[in-house]
Amino acid sequence: MKSLKDILYGVRLSAVTGSTAKMVNAICFDSRAVGMDDVFVAIRGTQADGHEFIDKAISSGANTVVCEELPGNLVNEVTYVQVENTQSALAVMAANYYGNPSRNLKLVGVTGTNGKTTVSSLLYQLFKKAGFKVGLISTIKIMVDDQEHATRHTTPDALVINKHLAMMNEAGVEFCFMEVSSHGIAQKRTEGLYFAGAIFTNLSHDHLDYHKTFAEYRDTKKLLFDNLPKTAFALSNIDDKNGFVMLQNTRAKKHTYALKTYADFRAQILENQFSGQLLKIGENEFWTRLIGHFNAYNVLAIYAAAELLGLETLEILRLISELETVDGRFQYFISDKKITAIVDYAHTPDALKNVLITINALRTGNENVITVVGCGGDRDKSKRPVMGHIATELSTQVIFTSDNPRSEDPSKIIEDMEAGVEPQNTRKVLAIESREQAIKTACKMASELDIILIAGKGHETYQETKGTRVDFDDFKKVRDMLTELQK
Ligand SMILES: CC(=O)N[C@H]1[C@@H](OP(=O)(O)OP(=O)(O)OC[C@H]2O[C@@H](n3ccc(=O)[nH]c3=O)[C@H](O)[C@@H]2O)O[C@H](CO)[C@@H](O)[C@@H]1O[C@H](C)C(=O)N[C@@H](C)C(=O)N[C@H](CCC(=O)O)C(=O)O
Ligand SMILES: Nc1ncnc2c1ncn2[C@@H]1O[C@H](COP(=O)(O)OP(=O)(O)OP(=O)(O)O)[C@@H](O)[C@H]1O
Ligand SMILES: N[C@H](CCC[C@H](N)C(=O)O)C(=O)O
Ligand SMILES: [Mg+2]
Question: What is the ipTM of this complex?
Answer without folding.
Answer: 0.97
